[in-house]
């Protein structure tokens, strides 16, 4: 489930931004990222570069907190998967925290592509997604909604059938009554339906 | 930038230099000629695998394969 999205425009062409994004760390704005490793990388059959990277981050805990919580290591790890498509000019990255108790995880997805109105610019779309136990929350909810919608749609169709049957019955009863009073013209009109 | 494995940083830097050059000068320009960094990557990857095991980092769904193998 998307909980946050944002868009940003860089006044640089897509190739420049992509090269930079690939070498994003280290940088002074992200001092917490202390290590970047490529776990795997290959060019797929469609000519896209697929990479799997591990980001090591370190964050300072006050020593009292360390004593209380008993954490000695303050490293967290982020696993990042990315695809660069040089033909379509897209660079898509998805990253998520690695933890031993992956009940709720927050994933981030970034897409860099040329700005549709200005090829000298690049547009970055960022999304944050939440999943519960590896199942995307949105698919869980969407699944629920889809079931409800289809159940309602089914009910709706049944309801229509019922109403049509009821209307037909009313017409027939009306016809029978009419036949008894006004003979041929009404009967002809009703049976013509 | 360092590697997660302290002993792998030099291998990582060598590989990164090679990769960044190939990425900018060949790959992004549509040049499909082979990746010249494969040997360097193998050495680096081997080192990182060991470091990850040693540090007990739970990597999800990664198969450590050489760059020449086809992904299933």
UniProtKB/TrEMBL annotation, chain A:
It comes from the Eukaryota. GO terms for cellular component: mitochondrial intermembrane space. Residues 1-172 form the PRELI/MSF1 domain. PROSITE patterns: PRELI_MSF1. PANTHER family: MSF1/PX19 RELATED (PTHR11158). This is PRELI/MSF1 domain-containing protein. It comes from Esox lucius.
UniProtKB/TrEMBL annotation, chain B:
It comes from the Eukaryota. It catalyses: a 1,2-diacyl-sn-glycero-3-phosphate(in) = a 1,2-diacyl-sn-glycero-3-phosphate(out). One of its GO terms (biological process) is phospholipid translocation. One of its GO terms (molecular function) is phosphatidic acid transfer activity. Signal peptide: none annotated. InterPro entries: MDM35_apoptosis, Ubol_cytC_Rdtase_hinge_dom_sf. Keywords: Disulfide bond. GO terms for cellular component: cytosol; mitochondrial intermembrane space; nucleus. The keyword Cell membrane does not apply. PANTHER family: TP53-REGULATED INHIBITOR OF APOPTOSIS 1. Belongs to the TRIAP1/MDM35 family. This is TP53-regulated inhibitor of apoptosis 1. The lineage of its organism: Eukaryota, Metazoa, Chordata, Craniata, Vertebrata.
């Amino acid at each position: 489930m998307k909980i946050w999205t944002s868009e940003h425009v860089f006044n640089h062409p897509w190739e420049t931004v992509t090269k930079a994004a690939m070498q994003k760390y280290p940088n002074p704005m992200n001092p917490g990222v202390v290590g970047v490793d490529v776990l795997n990388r290959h060019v797929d059959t469609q000519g896209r570069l697929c990479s799997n990277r591990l980001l090591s981050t370190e964050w300072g805990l006050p020593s009292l907190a360390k004593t209380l919580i008993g954490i000695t290591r303050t490293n967290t790890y982020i696993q990042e998967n990315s695809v660069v498509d040089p033909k379509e000019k897209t660079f898509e990255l998805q990253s998520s925290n690695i933890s031993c108790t992956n009940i709720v995880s927050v994933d981030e997805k970034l897409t860099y592509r040329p700005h549709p109105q200005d090829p000298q610019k690049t547009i970055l779309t960022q999304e944050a997604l939440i999943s519960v136990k590896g199942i995307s929350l949105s698919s869980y909810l969407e699944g629920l909604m889809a079931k409800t919608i289809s159940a309602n749609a089914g009910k709706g169709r049944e309801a229509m059938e019922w109403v049509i049957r009821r209307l037909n019955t009313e017409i027939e009863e009306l016809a029978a009554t009419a036949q008894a009073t006004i003979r041929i013209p009404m009967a002809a009109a009703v049976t013509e339906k | 930038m360092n590697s997660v494995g302290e002993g792998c940083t030099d291998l990582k830097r060598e590989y990164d230099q090679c990769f960044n050059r190939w990425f900018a000068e060949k790959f992004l320009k549509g040049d499909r000629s082979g990746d010249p960094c494969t040997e360097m990557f193998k050495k680096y990857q081997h080192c990182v695998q060991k470091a990850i095991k040693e540090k007990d980092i739970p990597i999800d769904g990664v198969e450590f394969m050489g760059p020449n193998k086809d992904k299933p």
